[in-house]
Specification:
The protein is an alpha+beta fold and 476 residues long. The chain has 15 helices and 17 strands. The strands form 6 sheets. It has a 6-stranded antiparallel sheet with strand order 9-8-10-7-11-12, with helices on one face. It has a 3-stranded antiparallel sheet with strand order 4-3-5, with helices on one face. It has a two-stranded antiparallel ribbon with strand order 1-2. Strand 8 and strand 9 form a beta hairpin.
Length: 476
């Protein structure tokens, strides 16, 4: 028997053991690592006969076997039940009273088990509006999350295709006042009400109305003018006009007056107010009429959910229904929340691209009766003459630009096959014609929402810089 020694603290120590910190047991080291498999030992639920099994995690695993062999007992009554039981046990006693608690399955040991979700097995019709997220009701919690903590942004598309993406915020009058008082004491500033934002015209009647209301100055395109000596704005240019509601110097005694001026500006501009203040430490001109106020800065505030640059991009208060593609408040208007639309498919219109135009490559124009065939053959001949296209060359050998004009038109005299079919589809009342034309339709991603199913306003709300569609596309 090996002789045991004692350390200065009285603990037993085997001879030859290294001094210093003892190594952690293997079991604790294993617990520190992420499990790569679910380990089940001694499963005896229902038909299971004390089985041991290892199931890899983060993989698609299929359990197969004869009827009555215990497939469901393993998947649902053992793995799912134990995962749910452990999850419920991690909640508070108050939360547990609202949840159904499953009993512990007949099993000796399970480790490496993540939270579990099970979809009920049932025969049902195919519903294009149902997803895994809606079926498991996870989507409802996501909608609630976005309604409570989502950050809305402007969804107006700019000329080059980019989104404006400015944050859309809302403040109360007191919050606006507090924000202004973060400026250095003694700062000079003006309270402006933006009544015209980037609109063409002279706006003569509006300026007269402002003068009748008792206001003295306005700012037009960045310059402040006295209403009595106002230059005539150019008729064909876009202008921005703000009413000068008040001019103040920042100090505590001006807080009440500032609040009243902000309320006046908000009522004039429909919930918007601009604070134009001098820059700290800069060379600031005296605020006289006609000055260009170089070095002064604008801060725009809003009491409504509206983009400062694009007031038409406004939102009501965020609500869960705004993020449901099954609700008219959230569903994309082009595809009605389906994410796909039926469109005429060029691959179905020309099923055999080895045929030439003279051989009837455009199958959709071959089944309309003798007179219709003559009419469409004449259209094709005119197209070939205009663009110098050989009618006897296989369709697949035509230039891509020619095929595109043939399918979608040239924007001038030739309508195009697809626009022609769409027009006929909308106008015809014959179910026979629609049934025949339906064979040339296929489901395509909606071009408005790009398959996301939601309105642009809903997709512009983000949590962690991702919108709801982007989160639902993430891998579990």
């Amino acid at each position: 028997m090996a002789k045991r020694t004692r350390t200065s603290r009285g603990n037993a120590k085997r001879p030859g053991a290294a001094s210093g910190r003892a190594k952690a047991p293997a079991s604790s080291r294993a617990r520190g690592r992420i499990k790569r498999e679910i380990v089940i030992r001694g499963a005896r639920q229902h038909n299971l006969q004390n089985i041991d099994v290892r199931i890899p995690r983060d993989k698609m695993v299929v359990i197969t076997g004869l009827s009555g062999s215990g497939k469901s007992s393993l998947a649902f009554d053992t793995i799912y039940a134990e995962g749910q039981r452990k999850y419920v046990e991690s909640l508070s006693a108050y939360a547990r009273q609202f949840l159904e608690q499953l009993g512990k399955p007949e099993v000796d040991h399970i480790e490496g088990l993540p939270p579990t979700v099970a979809i009920e097995q049932r025969a049902r019709g195919s519903n294009p509006r149902s997803t895994v997220a809606t079926t498991t009701e996870i989507y409802d919690y996501l909608r609630l999350l976005f309604a409570r903590v989502g950050e809305p942004h402007c969804w107006v598309r700019l000329p080059r295709g980019r989104l404006c993406n400015r944050p859309i915020t809302s403040q109360t009058v007191s919050q606006i006042v507090d924000a202004i008082f973060t400026l250095p004491e003694g700062t000079r500033f003006m309270v402006l009400a933006p009544i015209v934002r980037g609109q063409k015209g002279q706006h003569t009647e509006m300026l007269r109305h402002v003068q009748r209301e008792g206001f003295i100055r306005v700012r037009i395109d960045g310059s402040v003018y006295d209403l009595k000596n106002l230059p005539e704005p150019a008729k064909n240019k876009k202008h921005s006009i703000e009413v000068v509601v008040d001019r103040l110097v920042l100090k505590d005694s001006a807080r009440i007056r500032l609040s009243e001026s902000i309320e006046t500006a908000l009522s004039l501009a429909g919930g918007l107010v601009i604070i134009m203040h001098e820059a700290a430490g800069g060379q600031n001109p005296s605020p006289e009429a006609g000055g260009d106020f170089a070095g002064w800065k604008d801060r725009l505030f809003s009491t409504t959910y509206a983009c400062p640059k694009h007031p038409e991009a406004n939102l009501p208060e965020l609500a869960p229904r705004m993020f449901s593609f099954n609700s008219p408040y959230g569903a994309c208007e082009s595809c009605d929340g389906l994410g796909t639309i039926l469109e005429f498919d060029p691959d179905l219109i020309v099923p055999d691209p080895s045929l030439s135009l003279s051989q009837g490559a455009i199958d959709a124009w071959r089944h309309g009766g003798k007179r219709m065939n003559i009419f469409y053959n004449r259209l094709i001949r005119r197209f070939c003459i205009r663009y110098k296209v050989p009618a006897n060359v296989p369709f697949k050998e035509l230039r891509p630009s020619v095929r595109k004009k043939l399918m979608y038109g040239d924007g001038d005299k030739f309508e195009g096959v697809v626009p022609n079919l769409m027009r006929r589809w909308r106008k015809t009342e014959s179910q026979f014609v629609k049934a025949r034309m339906h064979s040339f339709l296929s489901e395509q991603p909606c071009r408005t929402c790009e398959g996301a199913r939601l309105k642009a306003a809903s997709l512009a709300v983000t949590v962690g810089e991702k919108n709801l569609h982007q989160i639902t596309q993430m891998s579990i």
